[in-house]
Amino acid sequence: MRIALINENSQAGKNGMILAALKKVVEPMGHTVDNYGMYAADDAAQLTYVQCGILGAILLGSKAADYVITGCGTGEGAMLAMNSFPGVICGHVEDPVDAYTFAHVNDGNAVAMPFAKGFGWGGELNLEYVFEKLFGFGHGQGYPPERVEPEMRNKRILDEVRSQTMRPLLDGLKSIDQELVKGAVAGEHFQDLFFRNCKDAAIQEYVKSLL
Question: Please, are residues 24 and 158 in contact by the beta-carbon 8 Å criterion?
């Protein structure tokens, strides 16, 4: 699995800590981590939590990433931004139980975490425990055991509902402020990471047109 890390501007200073915890946990599992920044608070490319949602949707929609880890001060804004796009099911994850139940009940492809609210002593340990529960035990297997069948059925129903209510990704991206989208893909290492891993020709051409 290719996992993308995206940090917005208010919590950019924690990027190194989050990246270290993520790689420590998931690389021994065989997963790959791509760090899309922000890398520091004074990066030239400043991402808002809205742009984290745009960037996350582009990465997932183009299959340049299989999973997105993002967040903001509370995690709420980043979650709402991510869930504004088709093909994204983003959970709000604060602790390991959230991570485990989201992975098995909701079977999403992104999480938004609070990197300021409640993030104090032991914050890096909570990150490690969250990533262990998020990636170490599979996805979509249902929870608790006696609820496996209805939970998996509900997920299929949700997927069908979203397929009917969400616009195609490119239509949505092209209809919003193009400077906003351009800013979302302006990160220092975006082009190297994205074009190497993108698997959707139409999205790739659209992104090239922005750059």
Answer: no
